Structure formats: C-alpha cells, structure tokens
Amino acid sequence: NQRITARESEQDVRHLEIALHESLSYEPGDALGVWPRNNPTLVETVLSQLKLNADEQISVGDQTLSLHEWLSSKRELTRLSKTFLQQHATRFAGDDLNALLKSENNEAISQFISQQQLPDLLNRYPGEWRAEELVNALRPLAPRLYSIASSRKTVGDEAHLTVSLLEYQIDENLRRGLASGFLADRDVGVQLPVFIERNERFRTPTDTSRDILMIGPGTGVAPFRGFVQERTEVGATGKNWLLFGARTAASEFLYQVEWQEALKKGQLHRLDLAFSRDQAERIYVQQRLRENAAEVYAWLENGAHLYICGAIAMGKDVHQALLQIISEQGGKSKDDASEYLGELQQAGR
Predict the structure, then answer these.
(1) Is the CB of residue 5 less than 8 Å from the CB of residue 13?
(2) pTM for the complete prediction?
(3) Biggest alpha carbon distance in the chain?
(4) Cβ(74)–Cβ(61) under 8 Å?
(5) pLDDT > 90 fraction of the chain, expressed in percent and rounded
(6) CB 94 within 8 A of CB 127
(7) What pLDDT digit, counting tens, does each position of 146-161 carry?
(8) For residue 123, what are the CA distances in angstroms to 45, 136, 181, 275?
(9) Other Cβ atoms closer than 10 A to 301
(10) Which of 331, 243, 319, 259 is nearest to 294 (CA)?
C-alpha cells in the first residue's frame, strides 16, 4: 500500500498490490470488486446520534445480525437515496426537507444527496428511527469496482490497483469515500474480501500485430499499465500509444518511471502528456488528440484499437474530439463520423 503522488499534491493516489487467493484469476481489462466496511467512527456516530443499541439483533430475510454489523458491513452510510430522504423527512420536525422534495427539482435533490453522508443528514435534520426501520430503509452496501493495473503474466498471483483516496469537506467534517478510505487504511498483511468482475469488451486485441491507442488520464491509466505488461509478455508486434493527463507533472505523473522505462525498451512506442496546471492555459488529453489528429486518424484507418478509461465527463470530451478528428481528417460529415465511431465499437475496436 504505497502513495504514488507527491506529498504536496492535493490527490493521495495509492498503488496497492494484492496477493490473490488461488481461486481467483483475471485478464487485463477486468476489475477487482472490493467489499468495503464502513469506517468505525461513522458507525459509532450514527448509533450515538439515534441513541440506538449496537447489539440489538435484527433479521432481514434469512439473515440475523447485530445493528452494529448491519451498519458496518451491510448498509450504505456514505451514499443516501431519495427514498431514504423521503422517509427521513417524515421524522424531521422542520419543513426544509419536505420543501426540497416537493420542489421536484431532481438536480437540486441529487446535489443535496451527494453532499450528505448519513451522520451529516442526522446532524442537520435530527429525527428518530427504530433500529429495524433504519436497516430496512438504508440501501444495501454495494461493492466498489477498480480497474486492475497489472497482467498476471508479469506479476503472478497478484492484482495491482491504482486508487485515488476521495476526501471532501462536509460542514466541519472531513469525509472520505467508502472504499478508497477503506483501502487506504489497510496495512500490509491484512485480508480483503474481493472478487473478479470480468469485462470482455475491454481486452487487448487477440491479433497482437494490431496497434493500440490508450487514453487514460489520472487513475484511468490503471488498466493500460496491465495492457502494456501483457503485450510485452506475449511479444505483441503492434505499437502501443498512451495519452496520459493529470494536473501537474511534478506531483501527479502516475507511474512516471515505469512509462519512461517502457519507452526506452520499446514496450511503449509513444507517450503524449497533458498536465492541465503546468502552464497558464489548461491543457487536457482531448487537446493532445486534436494536435495529433492526422496520426490518430491514420492509426484508426490502419486497424488500431482505441481505449478510453477515466471520468465520464472526460470520456464525453474525448468522444467529441474523436468525432471532430474523424470528420476533418476523413472528410466526413458529423453523421458519417458518428457512424464511423459506431462501426469501431461494433467491431470491438
């Protein structure tokens, strides 16, 4: 469990190496599912706020557990739902929550929910819950999925992860993301409840002579570390082009030494970088794509496979950049460019 961003960086990104149980195997492109536990302090805060007995036994379906265990490992405390909000509004004496819900402003409701973990909601809008009602009203705790950042051909019976620790301020409280906080706090030697989530649509080409173009800013670069390891081990003759972006080169260039070594050894054939805050003008990966439009289009025309991993907003911006490149370089209308991209997707490229 190693931090791979500089200490001065606002982002705390961890490289985790997990020794897998012999029953688990994966291919590059798959994800590791992690079953996290809620932070003990969060659980204790909720129990204290609602004055509930942690040892009370509660049955849901055929499962009977203590309230403490339900809140620790079976229920979401960091992600609330509109349904829960509606139920809590009936337990709160004021009108604020009901006014928000009656507004039917879904954007405002979603934003409100995203800014509350359960202790924050209970602090601002106190209300009484019986233990059994609370357990039934909260969403079941869901696993979190992380792209695997390694190839078994290189690392053996391990899975590597690249995890950004999510931290944000709610009122005077520093809150953490459920799974990223859970993983960041794990010491070497502890066991983790994990599973493999297969992703057959995110694989290196079966034809190893094909080129690949990988777009992965931030922790989106994780699966491409596995791709390059895999392609190196199988002796792929196709070229590997990586576009990586972050805020600053000095503090957030993830796996910098590895990428530079891969370039030297010819395992990575091209590396284009976009560091948004290293100059006055904000530069992102989609801009690097546009700057290299002729080469991008030539790679696609020659049969390259193209991969994007990262934030949804980035994906949309990259999609628009690709449409523009295909339209301009291929002399196509917007509709034809869109159809071209659609055909690449259908062909598994």
Answers:
(1) yes
(2) 0.93
(3) 69
(4) no
(5) 91
(6) no
(7) 999 999 999 999 999 9
(8) 10, 21, 22, 40
(9) 12
(10) 331
